[in-house]
Amino acid sequence: MGYLLGVTLLWSFSFSLIGVYLAGQVDSYFAVLTRVALACLVFLPWLRPKLLDRRRTLGLMGVGAIQLGLMYVCYYQSFVLLSVPEILLFTIFTPIYIALLDNLLCRRLDLFQIAMAGLAVVGAALIRYQSVGEAFWNGFLMVQGANLCFAIGQVGYRHLMRDVEGNFPALHVFGWFYIGALLVAVPAFLWLGDATNLPTTSVQWGVLAWLGMVASGVGYFFWNQGARRVDAATLAVMNNLLIPAGLLVNLVIWNREADLSRITLGGAVMLLALLGSEWWRRRSSTSGHQAAEFS
């Protein structure tokens, strides 16, 4: 879980950086392409193409295309349709998608996992709930598309790489993830992008460099490694911890208005969900171990 906590801190800066320096100023498809291309350049030198068979190579590219490529296209476009508070509000459904997808892939129904994901949603809603504008349905669907892509990628990576863990460093195959994302980002920019609306200041280029090499590059690598090491309930809860972290960064650095009482209450609820999922994971692991001893 340490990987997930570290990346949560790293990603907590991304919301404000996008909202303050990029949204409405730089073409969203160019921002997506730049982030993905820079992340890919970070990992290409480490790529060892022969380590994975064709099925897993295509699978990892597919995960990258969905989790990073399609997710970014939907996410950045939502800034055109919605306000930042509305976007943050609509991201609270990601834990539900993760719990349901994991249950679907495992062909089971773990009500406790779903309950902990739901509790995380409640905590996030306590922080970000507010009235929304009338014309928001297209933006809502765009954010849900991003949420679903992010959830599919996380759950898919956990299941795809589970039985090869330890055979070789994940660093040597993760480049396929970004190559898959590029297969979405390049045609999206060529088809829908605006080449006249590019960064015009060194600050904007610097923000894109940080988001690409660090937030997208280092961040997604360690997030997906962390996703392999926790159960679906913990992963679902960790997704919504980004909301209070992002709000705190925004409050401290950019001095935006925020309701500290809501942050405290919502964060406490999500922490309870996180502790509950960790307790359930350890209990299930212990029960399974004891059952094996007596079998």
Helix content: over 70%
What is the number of E strands?
A: 0
Largest sheet: none
The figure for the number of domains is 1
Overall geometry comes to globular
Helix-strand string: HHHHHHHHHHHHH
Radius of gyration: 19 Å
What would you say this structure looks like, in words?
Keywords: Membrane, Transmembrane, Transmembrane helix. This is Carboxylate/amino acid/amine transporter. It holds the Pfam family EamA. This protein is mainly alpha-helical and 295 residues long. It has one domain. It has 13 helices and no strands. The longest helix has 35 residues. The C terminus is likely disordered.
How is the topology of this model organized?
Layout: H1 2-11, H2 14-22, H3 28-43, H4 54-81, H5 84-90, H6 94-106, H7 111-128, H8 137-161, H9 175-192, H10 202-228, H11 232-240, H12 242-254, H13 260-294
Helix pairs in contact: 1-10, 2-10, 3-4, 3-9, 3-10, 4-8, 4-9, 6-7, 6-8, 6-11, 7-11, 7-13, 8-10, 11-13
Provide the descriptors you would attach to this structure in a database record.
EmrE-like; mainly alpha; transmembrane helix; EamA_dom; membrane; 295 residues; Carboxylate/amino acid/amine transporter; disordered C terminus
Quick take:
It comes from Kushneria avicenniae. By secondary structure, the chain is mostly helical.
